[in-house]
Amino acid sequence: MRKFSKTFSVAAFALALTLAGCSASGSTASNGTSGTTSSSGTQMVTAASISEDTHYDADDLTWDAAKEVAVTLKDGATTVAGSAAGVKIDGDTVTISAAGTYRLSGSLSDGKVVIAAGKEDVVRVILDGVTLTSSTGSPFVVESANEAILFLEEGTTNSIKDAATYADQGTDAPNAALYSLADLTLAGTGSLDVTGQYNDGIVSKDGLVLAAGNVTVKAADDGIRGKDYAVLLDGTYQITAGGDGFKSDNDTDDGRGWLLVNGGKLTVSAGDDGVKAQNQLAIANGTVTVAESSEGLESQHIAISGGTVSVTASDDGVNASGGASTAAQPGGGMGGGPGGGESVGDYSADISGGTITINSEGDGLDSNGNASISGGTVVVNGPESNGNGALDVNGELAVSGGTVAAAGSAGMAVTPGTSSTQSGVQVTFATTAPAGTAVQLADADGKLVATFVTTKATGSLVFSSSAIEAGKQYTVYTGGTAKVDSGLGGGSLDGATKLGTVTAGEYTQGHGPGGR
């Protein structure tokens, strides 16, 4: 018996699943787990394990090697070992029509593999050194099955490359190099290179779970896309996409269109959004790097409870917007920042853990509803333009824990709201601090509280941590010694220049050190 199994627990993580018909007061989810409420009042559930909320189960990666069906791919001469009623070969098209485990090796320079099994069938395909290319469309298509599992054999290199133009461009026709109409799981420790020349790289029109693998995707449009949900549990996934990088896009079914990263390493360079979900986007563990994007993370509701997240965006960095929300009530003035009566919709950005670093030309951390920070470390290197801000929250920005350093322009500076239980300070510079400036805070006893190094020209800095006490005065310095090239780190006031003082909890736009 061949076994490759692992159970993935997300017990500590509030999985972002909107429950149809549930109120914000705390009703019980249909699977019996208790609900929790986000900063926007949206009902969520705490998931006990990923298997409760997706098609994935660790048993999917356990099978009897003696029952594998070996298929050797070769142009004009593909063969099947033994008698396999579930495999049909027609020229360079291989069709799998029955449940089972199929081990593929070899190559097709202009062919395809099709899974056309029964609606209750689980089909497991092991890629054991496979090269698939098509000149007419997608070289790997799951037309029907209960679930398709693509397992990458350890130590092997595999590749799938589609045509630049598809012969069939109908509404329901495949549009990705690896395309599935059924639930799809990728696993194994081997490598897979996917090239989507026509449109997308990997697509599941149902649920998608990335359980493991060393996968590289290059796509003309979207890189990796699930419909009902998209989950990364483990493995290394590197995506280069002309459109969105990693996404879940069901915009019609309640409780669907969610995305979870609970492990692994995801790196995205995208022409549009880096990581995107229609409904809920959650990061609980792992490493997410959006190296290039228009908007880095985008969803109606965003929850980050762990992991390491780094976002570079030409527009907004972390953006709670889109989805199906409609505007609710007029805003109360974007946290502690300037007023303006912006509408507050059913949107939320909630950070309770992890390390988040944002470098954006638009708004850094942006919510069209409410936002909360209760843990973790949040560093925002926001815009230089006064038309955007490092923090932009239409409703209330509640800070109750963690460490926040948000640097950017002064024109749209937003600060923690009145519901915040953790204090902070606002520094507005009389003259813009250039990139590479060490900005340091010391308490009344001269003890260094924070050292922050700017990555770009900065007009405003908002800092909050447990070291800041409401009502106390803090002295602001520039220069001195910093132990980091950018962001937060240790330092020394030796040789620093005193700018003035600020009072914790006094947030006034345009209020600089020594200004009162």
User: How far is the N terminus from the C terminus?
Assistant: 75 Å
Number of helices: 0
Mean pLDDT: 87
Decide which structural class fits the backbone: mainly beta
Which shape, going by the Cα principal axes?
elongated
User: Biggest β-sheet, characterized?
Assistant: 22 strands, mixed
Q: What is the radius of gyration computed over CA atoms, rounded to a whole number of angstroms?
A: 25 Å
Instruction: Count the beta strands.
Output: 46
Assign a percent range to the helix content.
under 10%
Note the beta-strand portion.
over 45%
Instruction: List unreliable stretches of 5+ residues.
Output: 1-36, 43-48, 327-340, 510-516
Keywords:
mainly beta; 516 residues; elongated; disordered C terminus; single chain
Q: How is this structure best described in words?
A:
This protein has 516 residues and is mainly β. It is built from no helices and 46 strands. The chain has a 22-stranded mixed beta sheet that branches. It has a 13-stranded mixed beta sheet with strand order 7-8-10-12-15-18-21-24-26-28-31-36-38, with no helix packed on it. Strand 2 (35-37) and strand 3 (43-45) form a beta hairpin. It is elongated.
Give the SSE layout.
Elements: E1 2-3, E2 35-37, E3 43-45, E4 62-63, E5 69-73, E6 79-80, E7 87-90, E8 93-96, E9 100-108, E10 112-116, E11 122-133, E12 140-144, E13 147-152, E14 157-161, E15 176-180, E16 183-188, E17 191-196, E18 200-204, E19 207-210, E20 214-219, E21 224-226, E22 229-232, E23 236-241, E24 246-248, E25 258-270, E26 275-277, E27 280-292, E28 297-299, E29 301-304, E30 308-313, E31 318-320, E32 327-330, E33 343-345, E34 348-351, E35 355-360, E36 365-367, E37 370-381, E38 391-393, E39 397-408, E40 424-433, E41 438-442, E42 448-453, E43 458-464, E44 473-482, E45 487-489, E46 491-503
Parallel strand pairs: 5-9, 8-10, 9-11, 10-12, 11-13, 11-14, 12-15, 13-16, 14-17, 15-18, 16-19, 17-20, 18-21, 19-22, 20-23, 21-24, 22-25, 23-25, 24-26, 25-27, 26-28, 27-29, 27-30, 28-31, 29-34, 30-35, 31-36, 34-37, 35-37, 36-38, 37-39
Antiparallel strand pairs: 1-4, 2-3, 5-6, 7-8, 32-33, 39-43, 40-43, 41-42, 41-44, 42-45, 44-46
